[in-house]
Amino acid sequence: VEQGFVVVHKPTNWEVDAGSHNNAGSEASSASRRSRPLPLSSFLQDLFPESSILHDAAAGCGFLGRLDAQSSGLVLCALSYEAHLLLQLRQDTHAVSREYVVLCHGHVPTELKEVNAPIRAEPGMSSRVDTATGMPAVTWLRPIAWLVRADTAEKYSLVVLSILTGRKHQIRTHLAHVGHPVVCDGRYGPQKLEADLRWCPRNFLHRFRLEWPELPLAGTEVSKSRHQVREHLPDDLRQVLRASGLRPWRAGCAISAEALDAWAEGAAPLANFDAWAEVSFD
């Protein structure tokens, strides 16, 4: 708070919104509003009533980047316009690290280390890879476990990812583009959704780490220090790893077994992306 921003751990069914809920709706739409995800901006407005940027839709209510309502993880939010400007500059110049863990379909090849595919995103529509009109989008990925489900023999991968850019639904779009949609992603993997929902309650996507440089706010000395916040998988996704029949893709694959157990028990190292060693599952 001293530097003018906070990091929030967003649970599922909370929306990183832009304050649109503040616009009065009709009485007839009240039921539909109650069924929508909860607005994260309202939660922060209650905590920090003196912060005007949290009410400013033009400034995105202070949020730096987005997380889908059915995803979970860490979100940066500025409490002042100065902090928002400085954080946005750091993010636009790729000085903010954003790292995720997902469970996706299929065995992601270990040699697939980067997806560099332009994404076209339009309001109210799904994003898509479009080499002609899309905006640059780069996702780095590292599979850390190859898994199967005991009852179906379906293949899955536990993957750590980092993004250079932050396009709408970037990770979900890129993984679907390379044939490995996120588990329970009805938008980008609809053909898998019905089966996925039998054992996983929502998108298996969690932002577990944020890192950023210290901000040179007025009256403070410039520092080269960097700060990070890390957050283990929430209970619902840990339960998926523990109780859904997932196991290493073959007996004796210690690498997959160790990664599965660590994330399921909240003991994963949550290291920066470069620290995750490249592994071989052979």
UniProtKB/TrEMBL annotation:
Database matches in SUPFAM superfamilies: Pseudouridine synthase (SSF55120)
Domain Pseudouridine synthase RsuA/RluA-like: 5-177
One Gene Ontology term from the biological process aspect of the record: enzyme-directed rRNA pseudouridine synthesis
Pfam families, alphabetized: PseudoU_synth_2
A GO term for molecular function: pseudouridine synthase activity
CDD domains named in the record: PseudoU_synth_RluA_like
UniProt-listed InterPro entries: PsdUridine_synth_cat_dom_sf, PsdUridine_synth_RsuA/RluA, RluA_PseudoU_synthase
UniProt similarity note: Belongs to the pseudouridine synthase RluA family.
Record PANTHER family: MITOCHONDRIAL RNA PSEUDOURIDINE SYNTHASE, RNA PSEUDOURIDYLATE SYNTHASE DOMAIN-CONTAINING PROTEIN 1
Descriptive protein name: Pseudouridine synthase RsuA/RluA-like domain-containing protein
Source organism of this protein record: Polarella glacialis (Dinoflagellate)
